[in-house]
Amino acid sequence: MMNSNAASSSTANPDAAGSPDPPAPRRSSKRPKYSKFTQQELPACKPILTPKWVILTFLVVGIAFVPIGITSLLASRDVVEIVDRYETDCIPVANRTDKVAFIQSNASKTCTRQITVTKHMKRPVYVYYQLDNFYQNHRRYVKSRNDEQLKKRSKTSETSQCEPEDTTPDGKPIVPCGLIAWSLFNDTYTFSRNKRQLTVNKNGIAWKSDRDHKFGKEVFPSNFQNGTLIGGAHLDESIPLSKQEDLIVWMRTAALPTFRKLYGKIEVDLEENDIIDVILENNYNTYSFSGKKKLVLSTTSWLGGKNDFLGIAYLTVGGLCFFLALSFTIVYLATWRSFLPVMEQKSRRALSKFLEPE
Amino acid sequence: MAGNRRKKHHFSRIHAFSCGKTSFKGDHSLIGGPGFSRVVHCNDPESFEASVLNYSGNYVRTTKYTLATFFPKALFEQFRRVANVYFLICAILSFTPLSPYSAVSNVLPLVVVIGATMGKEVLEDWRRKKQDIEVNNRKVKVHCGEGAFDYTKWRDLKVGDVVKVEKDEFFPADLILLSSSYEEAICYVETTNLDGETNLKLKQALDATSNMHEDSNFQNFKAIIRCEDPNANLYTFVGSLELEEQQYPLTPQQLLLRDSKLRNTDCIYGAVIFTGRDTKVFQNSTGPPSKRSKVERRMDKIIYFLFGILVLMSFIGSIFFGIATREDLQDGKMKRWYLRPDDTTAYYDPKRAAVAAVLHFLTALMLYGYLIPISLYVSIEIVKILQSIFINQDLHMYYEETDKPARARTSNLNEELGQVDTILSDKTGTLTCNSMEFIKCSIAGTSYGRGVTEVERAMARRKGSPLEEEVTEEQEDKASIKGFNFEDERIMNGSWDNEPHADVIQKFLRLLATCHTALPEVDEENGKISYEAESPDEAAFVIAARELGFEFYERTQTSISVHELDPVTGTKVERSYSLLNVLEFSSSRKRMSVIVRSEEGTLLLLSKGADSVMFERLAENGREFEEQTKEHINEYADAGLRTLILAYRELDEKEYIQFNEEFTEAKNSVSADREELAEEIAEKIEKNLILLGATAVEDKLQNGVPECIDKLAQAGIKLWVLTGDKMETAINIGFACSLLRQGMRQVIISSETPESKTLEKSEDKSAAAAALKASVLHQLIRGKELLDSSNESLGPLALIIDGKSLTYALEDDVKDLFLELAIGCASVICCRSSPKQKALVTRLVKTKTSSTTLAIGDGANDVGMLQEADIGVGISGVEGMQAVMSSDIAIAQFRFLERLLLVHGHWCYRRISSMVCFTLKMLIDKLG
Fold first, then answer.
1. Residue B426 catalytic?
2. Which chain B positions have a beta carbon within 8 Å of A165's beta carbon?
3. How close B881 comes to chain A (CA, Å)?
4. Which of A144, A163, A232, A180 is nearest to B344 (CA)?
5. ipTM of the modeled complex
6. What are residue B651's phi and psi, to 5 degrees?
């Protein structure tokens, strides 16, 4: 057997002659480098859903959610909220057939309301107005403003996007321009208890970031509500926009057609059965689109205003989890003997599979 | 080298049947008619007549795009995705005031997505371009006038050029062989790239041109070739050569095809007849398709659905918007006064509410655009690229020996890997390593050889026997000699002399050393001998004989010389046998014989062949070892080995002379049935043989192939083998890789039966075709009946079908039946199938069963199949790069398929689908 490889390898098929070289150390090997990442050997874990695990998980979720739900529901229940719908009542009975005509007339629109406090209200008591069927989210409306103009004095003449409330007929820029500012809410409320005036604090009702950054300290209203069609409130031209908190609140547009906006804060406690007299100027026209107007007094809890939804949602989910845990337990106890081996086998296979990815 | 000496061989002796004169057959009357209109002016490509014809050049392009077509074509590809069209429309609209948001935020993602995907296309096409450049700039010697040959680039070849191709070069175009360095103007051609067959093919030029052996002969050579138009059929060719007012018929025998290789021949001269895209190999190829995975197609459907929702939402929204807008201003009264409906633009104009609604519809389409997940496409691209990196970096798919890691060439099919239902595999080079090993033999009723085959190992492993361990160890320290994996101290190193039937063993080995058509090549430096054989099996025999002490070292035109180990003296003696006749191998004869006269003067007929034809030719007194040999053959076949029976016979002088006369006469006859005549005469003398034994050659499977197939089968993946090889070989491999098992019922559909042969000979071609088709149909129906009636106890069915039958089985009216039968069978093997047929079968499976198909192959003949299948996997082996270039994923070994499909495919699919689901879930969240 003296013949070497060289002679015989070209024999059978010369084509394959060059293939199995002796594995000499190659300088430029294409061998992939080993790393746990590229070889997909990084340790990983993945839950294996055995009945015990599932039941336990549901149980834990249930145990966690039900107390949370109860607490938030309680917190929400603690909040005292008084809502007074006034848009119809504040129109004299004689004018109720044509409310729009009345609201657009120059007649006195002052109206008094009495509110009975149903429960002790801890200060601060927040005063809101609530509008209904008012589409602050309309695409035309929501874009009809110019943030540059609101922010910088130098950009006073910047009124793009503001049509048709951009300039006066003689071409002077309106500050603040746009439909939002133009339609500023202009009902006013004064409160008194036992003939004694209750002061409404209107400072700090807007977002601080809005006051500091979005509305300029040197920007003063000008040419505002000078047109033929008056939308809403007038603004004091001597007060910079950053101090016009009603405007700032209004210009943070609501996402839904029913919304509340903060009017002010009453900084004293209100006792149960207190009678609050409200004198309001019913100026704002919601009648042409048949929207409601409501005055809302409300306290807050640590969770915010009155809102039962969160608590109910937690309770529902928690309850569902308990129910599922219970029913799975029953099913499991009834049948575990029959599917135990299958489960075990499956989970073991799954486990071994991902431990040794081969 | 040794070539000059070899030039003098008279090959008519070796190739008794295929060499000789050809006659005009029926087809040749068609020349000049429709479909046969090509005219080639040989050696005169610049002439006026040739320039009128204006055949295309030899430049080939396999890229998807050219510089000019890239943008339109690539953009078209991109905008076949609905989502992209949608985003394009949005991007255009976003420049109008309709847009609810700025144009940049709309255009940018689109540009990024399309830019990234197009960049990927460019990169992939650039790789193809580089390959093209390499091929087009290969050089070949072309006759440039005055009898001088000069190197020219392939791309500059013209129809009619006379080229000189040297040993081991590829043919640059389809050529008509004019002459070769051999006197009889024959040459050997390797067509692995075309049909996957590994044995060399013999081609022979016309007598009229065969005497031009020198460059200078071509100075004044002028001829006109008329032939068929370019077509995809590799095995037929009809043409005629007009030389000096004389017509000569041209057949496939003279045709050298592009991408095949010249072997064992120093050089040939040929005239270019088909160039570039006209060549048969290009006619067989189909353009690189753009493949998309099922997940992607499913995703498209989801996006259609989402788009529907989007339109619906926008439509309903617009209606309400229109109504609300119209009501804003009635009789001059503003309803929603804060919107100033009295002073507005067309978008909100209550007076033209319908227009406003339409415009709002367009805006809404953009506004709700997040419903169409453009980000999903980007994330999927990114995830897939990462997955490709994981595939490329996998050490388990890195092949040390060739230094080749796996390569995912297109990343968009990763997850499809986990969905494969049917694998269509090539055989040679994919399942097997394309090398034969002499591993066992049975001589005089005793079985020798302790080698263990892959199959046996796999079987042992399946049974859980510990046999495997020791065997593999043993395996490693030997296997040094390619083609020889035989180990048995009883007959190695000359010790056969002590065996009981030493004389039989001697004859057996002598037969191995003499009965073949291989050519020895002596390495001049160290005197070592290597062989060039037509097929690797033959080489394995000669090597086996050499290793066992019978070293064949020289062939002259009349003799074969062998170094023999003399049992008496224990020394090597030279013996020379004068070679009288070679009755060569053909697929119908299934045997080959030589007639030699030994130094002692005895006339010997040495014969080897398949058991099916050999046993019946044994003499009464030659059946001494028949029982044991048959038993051994069955054992070998079970072990997946290819067996041949060896037998001999002494002839007496008179008998031989008579035979020789008849045989020579038959060979020289000009009639069309010359071959049959010669075969008949040969048949007469090949009888009364005395059995010596049997050989067993392993068509070596690649490492781990049986295990891999087994695993894939466990995973419920079906494997079809499509091969260009002979049916016997294919069946053998079927056994070797446990596709076929004992106890399986084989449904063999073949058109290679004697009846069909006679049919083919008949004049009326269409009638013959119809009859053949009827026969195939009949066989199919019978198979189907078997399938329908089969009960479990009879075992599963295996379908084996050959290329010719496949042609008929793939016709429109039959293919459903064929498919039904094929799907019902546990294994399917298609043999002798052309590249086009492979592609057609793949398409049939893909479209009719709508299951995911994966094609795996390594040669250029698999390209069509790889492109047609849902996933094409190329084996980056030794057989050139064509398969890899057209594949989607390239791996180095078949066994890596297991990890690719079952691990990566699984992971990729799971991960992609969770990602898609998650992204869609986020969309729903956004909607909420």
1. yes
2. 340
3. 14
4. A163
5. 0.78
6. -105, 150
